[in-house]
């Protein structure tokens, strides 16, 4: 028998020599990429089990190894990635044990990110569609042609005829720059993935207590004693978060309740699982709350001091007796009584949600109901409790904050004149110059059109789109083409556009799905591993990622592409007035400094690039539960300076780990609910009563701070002369009205904090949000309801017009009932995520390590439904949708994971359309390994009234054997 | 001398497949070869459990017992390795292995399967210097030679998959079960004897 020679001493020496700085004739990067990829192996060969020898050494002995810390580009957990790089080739990925967020761990996607920069299926150069054929062109030609076309469209149809679709894959700096680009172009139709993932969360949560974000953190869940996960499947969507959840379950013996139509992989680890009919979240929440009120388990003290309008909620909840809840949702009352007891008695309790709550016609109302349950049980604003909203993409929180949104300028300033004037001051450009870029002042202040409806703005008659002309061009940066519902109509819209530009590492579904012949450009933009910048994880921690390798092939980073485009559009000089540009590339550090100067409203002011980089360097100093650093140059900071991080970087605010936490001093990250909606409503105060954060000099509620408020309190003397001068300059004739959020000196914020107060005020959270369509959430049946008998009692909202387009959900729902759609399409169709893929899936389906694990698009169908249709596991089936005669050919997965009458399909697939393989339509060599039908071919009409979020979680379908 | 082992804590495995792609990443294992995989039982039902499987590096390895060319050997750390120079691709080890660990680049019988491939516990193989390009091309990475553990376990999303000195990981697992106050996963007493025991 062979015995392997092994000597510990020798090994250690060898390790040192490998890591040492020695010169060698290592592979050049291109040669390495050619040899390392399996791109040359055809899929046919692969299917037969052929194996190409892996002929690239992970490490070239002797060549210098650089260790670079980056951040995973997939979900919002924010796992650190350690890259070992030799000669600009990422040769090895190592676990980042020092990160307090992931502690070395990854999921399938994170453990495979190195492949992204090998890029076997990446788009290699700019491409142009000429009479249906892809042609390679140069960057200059591409950008010149695109800019010329944009200018021609603008001249004829105005700036609002171009839709700017941005990305949650941008860094904060990229997202901010893209929003700024749209502002200089002169439109508010600039959107990104948050629209289709958590826009309703942001709207619902912000309207309840001030900020639209996760209140606590993944790590803080380690403090929980009850975790209720409703409408989320973190085991697949945020796998590393389970590390923290399972720790709470094991160490605290915490309850882990999963409420979901599917018995998910998360449910497999739950202590309690509750199955509900899709689309009945509000009845279930009210059903829980019914038991809370019935048994007087509510937190009366918390409600009295910190909640407005709970009595209105009581009236609505009283209608949801256990019998009615069971009739509507199918959930037995006793089960909900148990959950009610846990949330009220086994505290701290946290509510975790994802797109099961948000992607609904009642998304905002759902989220509001969740918040109200937390408020009623006193589970917000402490450790281990709160609304732990797991966001989707790696920087969807940051991109939302940076204002890739049709209703706001960066950092939630809105679109009113005051907001424009604020950003004009930050950008050091004249307000009138910005105004001149728009069609009119009214359009400058009007909400734009969302990504869920862009094709309606292309296809509708001109008079039904409330702007000068239809959309005629779409600029897509980092966004999949299979992400919106009603794809058959989306494709028609795509075909009607004069200009389509897709800037992405991959061609995306947009390149292959339509019959476009001309006017289409693909721009290879690199991943975040090939550039640097900061990204905000779901818990508001901001992490700086270094560049691992230079952009591969001919790709360029977002910053450079935006800059070169703005040069051609003629506003680069204005737009980059205070941002350093080197070799056509704006420096992300400088962009972040500009953000720091302007983003007072959200506390993005203290996170300078220098501080963020220090955090990445000293990750090992941060505690895994508190996220607070002990020792070193980052002593006392919370990891990633989670916003709000008040004041200037020099003031060294530690960031805010848990929002609205009154047990901490504001200087230690304490807070109160935000006074965002005035001081009173119909004579009733909206300010907190007798509740305040630790150390506050005002021992009661207070409004947001302005210079006038400071004067009333006699604290204006604390302002320095310089600060006062800035305030007076901003205020002009009325300096008293200058609020903390537009005070560019930061003086008002500084003085408020000095006195232990939150600059945004101290208010009550609103159980009754009077400005929303449903101030107290009410149940409304889905547009395509499987229970038409309930529609008359619980109808959706009547038709109305918002965001420049009508929402005819009411009409569609009535028609569905009268047409008997529920009989023809008797199965409820819902969609969701797989762990191996991300979003639209182009990137991950192009990664062979991931693609190998999920090779077929499928539909999960209950054995009872399969049996009655003669369907066996693995059979090809047609899934038919109720609109546009839509159909999709997929494989059947017969499993009890879904209940009887419910089917589930993952949303990551594309490249097949209604049974036809579209592989040949991708530019050569860029087709993802795995293609399949998009679930959104089948999903249907339905939009949330507040954000126009689409309905992807509840529609109807029929399944037949193919 | 310590024996290294894998242990998958089935109460923590969420079937995220990080171990599978980490293995691909560390070893550049080609499409179709799965040194590691996650197996799920009771899929979609209460009682669903997942467990990550690879070569278990048996003390008395059946693969070695049946190999006609005696290409298997056990390292001083207790890792079961084989020589691809000696392997004749007969596939006997595949039938002998209770865990389905051996993988072959081709489908076929009677020596046409190609050289067998399996988990090396990230310990490379017998030919070539530790960490050399030749060793990597044939066997994948050699993390053990650098004092590191297999990447699958190091990157496990929930710290379910443990790798290392058998004594130490058994101790970690024992402490976890005591802290949790419940079961020892998919195997153990409950599965074997159909009865509940309090640990």
Can you walk through the features of this model?
The complex is a heterodimer of chains A (962) and B (199). Chain A has 962 residues and is an alpha/beta fold. Chain A has 36 helices and 34 strands. In chain A, the strands form ten sheets. Chain A has a seven-stranded mixed β-sheet with strand order 5-4-16-15-14-6-7. Chain A has a six-stranded mixed barrel with strand order 26-30-27-29-28-34. In chain A, strands 10-9-8-12-13 form a five-stranded parallel β-sheet. In chain A, helix 5 runs parallel beside helix 24, helix 10 runs antiparallel to helix 13 and helix 10 packs across helix 14. The termini of chain A are far apart. Chain B is an alpha+beta fold and 199 residues long. Chain B has a single domain, classed as 2-Layer Sandwich (Alpha-Beta Plaits). In chain B, the strands form three sheets. A two-stranded antiparallel sheet of chain B has the order 1-6. A two-stranded antiparallel ribbon of chain B has the order 2-3. In chain B, strands 4-5 form a two-stranded antiparallel ribbon. The mean pLDDT of chain B is 89. Chains A and B meet through helix 1, helix 9 and helix 35 of A and helix 1, strand 4, helix 4 and helix 6 of B.
Tell me the Rg of chain A in angstroms: 27 Å
Strand-residue proportion of chain B: 5-15%
Report the CATH topology name of the largest domain in chain A: Rossmann fold
**Beta fraction of the residues of chain A?**
5-15%
Number of domains of chain A: 5
Q: What is the strand tally of chain A? A: 34
End-to-end C-alpha gap of chain A: 56 Å
Q: Tell me the CATH architecture of chain B.
A: 2-Layer Sandwich
Helix residue percentage of chain A: 25-40%
Number of discrete helical segments of chain B: 7
């Amino acid at each position: 028998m062979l015995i392997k020679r092994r000597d510990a001493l020798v090994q250690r020496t060898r390790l040192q020599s490998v890591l040492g700085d020695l010169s060698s004739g290592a592979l050049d990067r291109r040669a390495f990429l050619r040899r390392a990829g399996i791109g040359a192996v055809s899929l046919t060969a692969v299917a037969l089990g052929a194996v190409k020898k892996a002929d690239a050494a992970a490490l070239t002995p002797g060549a210098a190894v650089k260790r670079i810390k980056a951040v995973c580009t997939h979900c919002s957990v924010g796992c650190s990635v350690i890259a070992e790089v030799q000669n600009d080739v990422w040769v090895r990925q190592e676990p980042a044990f020092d990160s307090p967020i992931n502690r070395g761990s990854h999921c399938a996607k994170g453990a495979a990110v190195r492949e992204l920069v090998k890029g076997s299926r990446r788009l290699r150069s700019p491409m142009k569609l000429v009479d249906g054929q892809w042609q390679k062109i140069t960057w200059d030609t591409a950008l010149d042609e695109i800019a010329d076309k944009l200018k021609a469209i603008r001249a004829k149809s105005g700036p609002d005829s171009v839709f700017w679709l941005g990305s949650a894959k941008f860094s904060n700096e990229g997202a901010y720059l893209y929003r700024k680009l749209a502002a200089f172009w002169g439109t508010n139709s600039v959107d990104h993935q948050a629209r289709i993932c958590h826009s309703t969360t942001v709207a619902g949560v912000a309207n309840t207590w001030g900020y639209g974000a996760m209140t606590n953190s993944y790590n803080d869940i380690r403090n929980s004693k009850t975790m209720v996960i409703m409408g989320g499947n973190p085991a697949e969507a945020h796998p590393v978060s389970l590390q923290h959840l399972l720790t709470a379950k094991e160490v605290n013996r915490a309850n882990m309740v999963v409420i979901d139509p599917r018995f998910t992989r998360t449910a497999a680890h739950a202590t309690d699982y509750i199955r509900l009919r899709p689309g009945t979240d509000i009845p279930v929440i009210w059903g829980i709350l019914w038991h809370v009120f019935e048994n007087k388990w509510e937190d009366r003290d918390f409600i009295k001091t910190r909640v407005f309008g709970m009595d209105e909620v009581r009236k609505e909840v009283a209608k949801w007796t256990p019998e009615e809840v069971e009739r509507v949702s199918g959930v037995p009352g006793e089960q909900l009584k148990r959950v009610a007891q846990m949330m009220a008695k086994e505290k701290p309790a946290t509510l975790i949600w994802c797109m099961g709550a948000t992607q609904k016609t009642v998304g905002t109302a759902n989220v509001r109901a969740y918040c109200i349950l937390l408020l009623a049980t006193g589970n917000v604003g402490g450790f281990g409790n709160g609304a732990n909203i797991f966001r989707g993409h790696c920087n969807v929180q940051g991109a939302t904050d940076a204002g890739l949104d049709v209703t706001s300028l960066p950092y939630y300033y809105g679109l009113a004149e005051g907001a424009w004037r604020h950003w004009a001051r930050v950008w050091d450009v004249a307000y009138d110059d910005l105004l001149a870029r728009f069609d009119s002042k009214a359009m400058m202040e009007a909400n734009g059109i969302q990504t869920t409806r862009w094709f309606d703005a292309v296809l509708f008659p001109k008079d039904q789109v409330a702007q000068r002309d239809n959309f005629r061009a779409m600029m897509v940066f980092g966004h999949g083409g299979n992400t919106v519902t009603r794809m058959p109509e989306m494709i028609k819209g795509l075909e009607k556009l004069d200009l389509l530009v897709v800037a992405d590492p991959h061609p995306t579904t947009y390149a292959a799905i339509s019959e476009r012949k001309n006017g289409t450009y693909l721009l290879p933009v690199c991943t975040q591993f090939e550039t640097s910048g900061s990204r905000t994880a779901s818990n508001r921690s901001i992490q700086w990622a270094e560049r691992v390798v230079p952009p591969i092939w001919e790709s360029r980073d977002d910053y450079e592409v935006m800059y070169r485009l703005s040069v051609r559009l003629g506003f680069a000089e204005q737009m980059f007035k205070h941002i350093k540009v080197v070799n056509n590339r704006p420096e992300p550090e400088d962009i972040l400094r500009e953000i720091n100067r302007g983003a007072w409203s959200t506390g993005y002011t203290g996170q300078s690039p220098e501080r963020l980089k220090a955090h990445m360097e000293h990750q090992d100093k941060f505690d895994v539960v508190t996220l607070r650093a002990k020792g070193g140059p980052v002593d006392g900071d919370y990891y990633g300076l989670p916003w709000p991080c008040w004041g200037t970087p020099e003031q060294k605010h530690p960031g805010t780990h848990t929002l609205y936490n009154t047990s901490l001093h504001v200087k230690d990250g304490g807070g109160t609910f935000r006074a965002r909606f005035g001081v009173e409503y119909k004579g009733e105060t909206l300010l907190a009563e007798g509740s305040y954060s630790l150390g506050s000099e005002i021992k009661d509620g207070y409004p947001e701070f302005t210079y006038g408020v400071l004067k009333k309190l006699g604290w204006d003397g604390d302002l320095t002369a310089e600060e006062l001068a800035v305030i007076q300059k901003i205020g002009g004739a009325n300096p008293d009205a200058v609020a903390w959020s537009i005070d560019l000196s930061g003086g008002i914020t500084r003085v408020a904090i000095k006195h232990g107060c939150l600059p945004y005020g101290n208010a009550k959270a609103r159980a009754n949000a009077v400005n929303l369509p449903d101030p107290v959430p009410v149940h409304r049946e889905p547009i395509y309801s499987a229970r038409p008998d309930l529609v008359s009692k619980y109808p959706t909202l009547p038709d109305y017009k918002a965001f420049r387009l009508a929402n005819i959900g009411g009409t569609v729902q009535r028609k569905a009932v009268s047409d008997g759609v529920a009989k023809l399409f008797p199965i409820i169709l819902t969609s969701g995520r797989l762990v191996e893929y991300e979003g639209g899936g182009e990137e991950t389906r192009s990664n062979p390590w991931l693609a190998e694990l999920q090779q077929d698009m499928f539909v999960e169908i209950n054995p009872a439904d399969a049996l009655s249709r003669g369907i066996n596991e693995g059979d090809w089936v047609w899934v038919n949708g109720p609109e546009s005669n839509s159909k999709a050919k997929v494989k059947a997965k017969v499993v009890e994971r879904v209940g009887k009458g419910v089917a589930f399909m993952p949303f990551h697939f594309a490249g097949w359309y209604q049974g036809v393989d579209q592989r040949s339509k991708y530019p050569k060599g860029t087709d993802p390994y795995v293609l399949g039908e998009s679930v959104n071919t089948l999903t249907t009409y339905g939009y949330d009234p507040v954000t126009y979020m689409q309905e992807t979680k509840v529609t109807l379908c029929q399944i037949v054997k193919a | 001398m310590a024996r290294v082992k894998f242990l998958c804590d089935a109460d923590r495995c969420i079937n995220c497949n990080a171990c599978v792609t980490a293995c691909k990443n560390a070893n550049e294992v080609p499409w179709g070869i799965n040194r590691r995989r996650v197996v799920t039982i009771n899929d979609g039902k209460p009682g669903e459990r997942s467990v990550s499987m690879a070569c278990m590096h048996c003390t008395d390895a059946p693969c070695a017992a049946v190999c006609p060319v005696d290409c298997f050997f056990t390292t001083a750390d207790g890792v079961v390795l084989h020589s691809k120079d000696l392997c004749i691709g007969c596939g006997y080890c595949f039938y002998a292995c209770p865990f389905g660990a051996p993988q072959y680049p081709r489908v076929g019988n009677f020596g046409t399967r190609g050289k067998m491939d399996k988990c090396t516990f990230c310990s490379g193989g017998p030919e070539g210097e530790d960490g050399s390009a030749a060793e990597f091309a044939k066997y994948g990475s050699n993390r053990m030679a650098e004092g590191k553990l297999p990447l699958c376990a190091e990157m496990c999303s929930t710290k379910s998959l443990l790798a290392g000195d058998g004594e130490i990981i058994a101790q970690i697992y024992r402490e976890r079960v005591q802290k949790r106050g419940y079961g020892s996963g998919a195997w153990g007493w409950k599965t074997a004897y159909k009865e509940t025991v309090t640990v």
